[in-house]
Design goal:
- By secondary structure, this protein is mainly alpha-helical.
- It has 14 helices and no strands.
- Helix 2 crosses helix 11.
- The C terminus is likely disordered.
Length: 301
């Protein structure tokens, strides 16, 4: 289940890169979540009724989750994919656990251990290697793809979403909180999409068999199937062990990009991506053995 989730999410970068040729980014994100919301709605009536008091009492937290994880992360990723490759985006996105570790220090007051700091520094070097294409000249001249920095901004939004979710994991019911945050995200994205279309003069959406298939992929597989697969997988083996599986995401993204698109895998992406993943492993290795038993039954989306 964990492998399936990362396979779908890896494919999401490639599909997202293809999707921005058909849809402007805010509209793309809006349509993704409308599809997910419509698919979930028939199954959520009883769940919402049972959890309504808790959800109402934490409406501000749910709004924050909607801003960061639903509206913010996905929209910025789709915007970034207009300027960078799906391979680069997936490699930069693999720093997510490191951003979560840093934000956990400030928000959850967790301690940043020496091995975590070393992993973060190593991964930052890997990211700089990728976005500068392994060239000191490119880095010094600052001729760096802006899309890679947009991905970093998206990663920050997702890390913030994850840390907030972790803080309220024992309070908010997982599925109904996700459902409500999707609904709030739609309310946020709808006027932004209108603004994108009227004032930013975004390209008109193109609906073809291929583009509709893309929407169904991101709306059903990436938003619901991957989410459910990940959560069930985590419940079986525990959150600490499951975190290591996130390193499969850029691997799948690279495979799909090479298979289905015209993108090429460059040497600097291989080296930089390897450094990033090594940094993530070093950062989580010690905590993996320490947290294995204590987190066996806990997970926060």
């Amino acid at each position: 289940m964990l492998i399936l989730a990362n396979m779908i999410w890896g494919g999401n970068f490639v599909i997202g890169r293809m999707g921005v040729d058909y849809f402007p980014p805010v509209f793309f994100s809006l349509m993704r979540w409308i599809i997910a919301f419509l698919v979930l709605t028939p199954f959520m009536r009883k769940q919402l009724k049972n959890d309504w008091v808790t959800l109402r009492d934490h409406k501000r937290i749910l709004l924050l989750l909607a801003v960061t994880g639903v509206a913010g992360y996905n929209t910025i990723i789709y915007f970034a994919l207009q300027y960078t490759t799906s391979i680069n985006a997936s490699v930069v996105n693999s720093t997510t656990p490191l951003f979560i570790a840093l934000l956990a220090v400030f928000i959850l007051k967790e301690k940043l251990l020496a091995h975590q700091a070393a992993g973060i520094i190593l991964s930052v070097f890997g990211i700089l290697f990728v976005i500068s294409k392994g060239s000191i000249e490119v880095f010094l001249s600052w001729k760096i793809n802006a899309g890679d920095f947009y991905v970093l901004a998206a990663v920050f939004m997702w890390a913030l979403y994850s840390v907030i979710g972790k803080k309220y994991a024992d309070i908010l019911p997982l599925l109904s909180a996700f459902y409500v945050s999707v609904f709030l995200g739609i309310l946020l994205l709808a006027p932004l999409s209108l603004f994108e279309y009227i004032w930013m003069e975004a390209v008109k959406p193109v609906f073809t068999l291929s583009s509709i298939g893309i929407l169904l992929y991101v709306g059903f597989l990436a938003s619901i199937m991957a989410f459910l697969s990940w959560n069930f997988g985590v419940r079986i083996i525990g959150a600490a062990k499951a975190g290591v599986f996130l390193n499969l995401l850029p691997v799948f993204a690279i495979i799909f990009a090479l298979w289905f698109t015209q993108e090429k895998l460059y040497f600097y992406q291989t080296i930089g991506g390897g450094i990033v993943i090594l940094g993530v492993i070093i950062s989580s290795m010690k905590s993996l053995s320490l947290m294995n038993h204590s987190e066996e039954s806990n997970f926060s989306a």
